Amino acid sequence: MEKMNIPYGRQNITEEDIKVVIETLQSDYLTQGPKILEFEEAFAKYVGAKYAVAIANGTAALHLCAMALDVEQGQKVITTPITFAASANCVRYCGGEVVFGDIDPETYLLDINSVRKLLEASPKGTYQGIIPVDFAGRAVDLEAYKKLADEYNLWIIEDACHAPGGYFTDSKGQQQLCGNGNFAELAIFSFHPVKHIACGEGGMITTNDEALYKKLLKLRTHGIVKSEDQYTNSIAFAGGDEKYPLWYMEMQDLGYNYRLTDFQAALGLSQLSRANEGIDRRRQIAATYFDAFNGKDYIQGQSGVVEGHAYHLYIIEVENRLGLYNYLREHGIYAQIHYIPCHLMPYYRQFGWKEGDRPFSENYYKLCISLPMYPTLSEAQQQYVISAINTFYEAE
Questions:
Q1: What does DSSP say about strands 314-317 and 301-302: parallel, antiparallel, or unpaired?
Q2: What share of the chain in percent tops pLDDT 70?
Q3: Distances (CA, A) of 251 to 139, 257, 303
Q4: Are 40 and 54 in contact, with CB atoms under 8 Å apart?
Q5: What's the pTM?
Q6: 76-85: average pLDDT
Q7: Is the confidence at residue 387, as pLDDT, over 70?
């Protein structure tokens, strides 16, 4: 077969996407305009949450969540080592301490039993929160995590960057969409180009807590408010007579400029309109991969066919991962590795983390490789990927 060039993920920008962005660029607003609220309301409806706050990117969203929940110096928060570093770094931005649990080797998700052991090994009050990650698009059972969190008076931030449209089934048989706010105080999403919804950069925070929602709105814009019912300085100080002058505003907290632009929001809205179509295609691709590799002795594990999985990634575990990675690149297939365990990054090693601390995560890293997964991946391209993997191992 003729050599193809296939990335592990890519955006899908349509003519309609381009049209709505151009229309927004030609409007009166480039940022802080009406498209922001429109996107927030549509996204909240999509995931089933009461509120959504559009943010500059997923990392900024995590940072604001940690701030909104008052993470501070010395507080301990538990997360998974198998995630992008931002899931942990948001705690460090606020001066908190990150404690890594281990993963369940079957699901690749943060193992609730590992978390429970950490909590049981310390006095209550030692930990403040948990950041479970819907890794690769597989939804965490947040109902179980909520029960554990309530037992230890902890909050939950759901990192759902990989899983818009994903869900788990609760104990009553109800589907619980990722980010719906029923079990986590806050959830975050990313709109990086390889994600389900692409804005170039961008993120979203969802919640059902009105107080947290209002706090997030303030924090994403320098901690500034522009509403009479929120002002604390006097009308006289503001320069008014009987009411505050229209120019007046107050910085009440130390916030950040973490806003999304209107043209990014317009792109996000357009992408959201076909999100269900995209996730259906991702699930078809996953089923094809599973059928192709099921029973192969050189496949030690794979993402599989899982109800509610959003399939941001499709992962296989193999021996001679480096050999396969290089072979695929030679044939134009740009697979990727997700992720190097966070606790073994040099930054986190300085806090005492070392090899052997989280064995399931470390073993997973030695074997994992993410295959091309995006809605516009054609059947011919996928078969080319499958054929290349089979040829590599069958020729050994």
A1: antiparallel
A2: 100
A3: 38, 12, 47
A4: yes
A5: 0.97
A6: 98
A7: yes
The CA distance from 137 to 133, in Å, is 9
* pLDDT score recorded for residue 121: 98
CA-closest candidate to residue 159, choices 76, 78, 277, 242: 78
Please state, in angstroms and rounded to a whole number, the distance separating the CA atoms of residues 93 and 60. Answer: 10
Angle at 251 between CA 249 and CA 252, to 5 degrees: 120
| Ramachandran assignment for 318, one of left (phi > 0), alpha (psi -120 to 50 degrees), beta (any other) | beta
Phi and psi at 180, nearest 5°, equal -80, -10
**In the block, residue with structure tokens 């601390």:** 357
| Dihedral sign for Cα atoms in the order 210, 211, 213, 214 | positive
Please give the pLDDT value at position 1.
59
Amino acid letter, residue 282? R
> What are the E-state strand segments in the chain?
6-7, 51-55, 76-79, 97-100, 127-131, 155-159, 167-169, 175-177, 186-190, 203-207, 224-225, 250-251, 301-302, 314-317, 333-334, 368-371
**pLDDT, position 10:** 96
Please give the single-letter amino acid code of residue 1.
M
Phi/psi of residue 45, nearest 5 degrees? -65, -40
Pairing label, strands 76-79, 127-131: parallel
Return the number of other C-beta atoms located less than 10 Å from residue 2's C-beta: 5
Say if strands 250-251 and 186-190 run parallel, antiparallel, or are unpaired. unpaired
Measure the CA–CA gap between 177 and 163, rounded to whole angstroms: 9
Q: What is the DSSP string of 348-381?
A: HHTTT--TTSSHHHHHHHHHEEEEP--TT--HHH
Count helices and strands (H / E) in the chain: 14, 16
**Is residue 86 within 8 Å of residue 55, measured between CB atoms?**
no
Q: Are 49 and 207 in contact (CB under 8 A)?
A: yes
pLDDT in tens, 342-375: 999 999 999 999 999 999 999 999 999 999 999 9
CA distances from 358 to 241, 298, 370 (A): 64, 24, 21
What number of CA atoms fall less than 13 Å from residue 175's CA on the CB side?
Answer: 9
CA distance 389 to 396: 11
pLDDT tens string 247-271:
999 999 999 999 999 999 999 999 9
Structure tokens belonging to residue 252: 């009440």
